[in-house]
Amino acid sequence: MTHRVHPYVFRLGEVTNWKSRWFHLKKYQEYLEEDTILREWLAKKLSASHNNPIEIERSPNSIHIIIRTSRPGILIGRGGEGSVKLKSDIERKLVEIWKNRYPRVYPKKRDIKITIEDIKSPHTNANVIGELIVEDLLKRIPFRRIMKQAIEKVSSDKSVKGVKVALSGRLDGSEMARYEWLKSGRIPLQTLRANIDFSQKEALTTYGIIGVKVWIYTGDVFIDKSAKS
Fold first, then answer.
1. CA 34 to CA 139: how far, in whole Å?
2. Which architecture does CATH list for 122-220?
3. pTM of the full structure
C-alpha cells in the first residue's frame, strides 16, 4: 500500500520554503494554532481573488502577512481602502482567536503588516487553476470540458512541461462517485528537484462534495550546493 506525501511538503528545503517562517520556544503551540485558523479564515474570505496559500512571518512585536493573488485590484480597492479594511478585519480576528482559545495568555499588541503581491503567471499556478475549476463546477459545466479547458490553458504556457487534473465525487450528478483524471506531459513526483506546484480544492455542489487536485510541473531547479555562504 502506497504512502501519499504532499508534493510541496516533500520538497521543503530543496525547492520549496515554509509557509510560516518563525520560531518561538514558549508560545509555539499558540502561534501555530493562530496561523492555522487565520490562514483558513483568509482563504474563505478572499476566495474570489484567487490567492496562493497565505505566508506568515513573525518578529517579537509584529506579524507580516504575505498575500499573493492574481487579482490584486480586488484586495487593494480604490485608494487602498480594501487593504486598510482587510488589516482591521485581521486585527479583530486575532483578538477573537486569543480570547476564545487562550484568554489567560493574551499577547501584547502587535504591529500587523500586509503585503499584497501579484501572481505574474496565474496560468502556471495550481491554486488559481484549482479555484477556476471549482467555479466552473458550481456553474454545472460538464466536468470533462472543464478538465480539457484547464489542461489546454495551462499547457499554452511555454514554461509548463506537464500538468495533471483529477476530479473525484458524484461527477455530473451520477449516483455513484468515481475518480477521473487527465494528464498532459510528465509529472515526476519522485524527483526532489522537480518544481511541481500542487493544489487541492473542494467544490460544494448540490450533489455533494467534489474533490479537485491540480499538479503543474515547470521544470527542474538546480541549486549550487558547493557555493559557500
1. 34
2. 2-Layer Sandwich (3.30)
3. 0.85
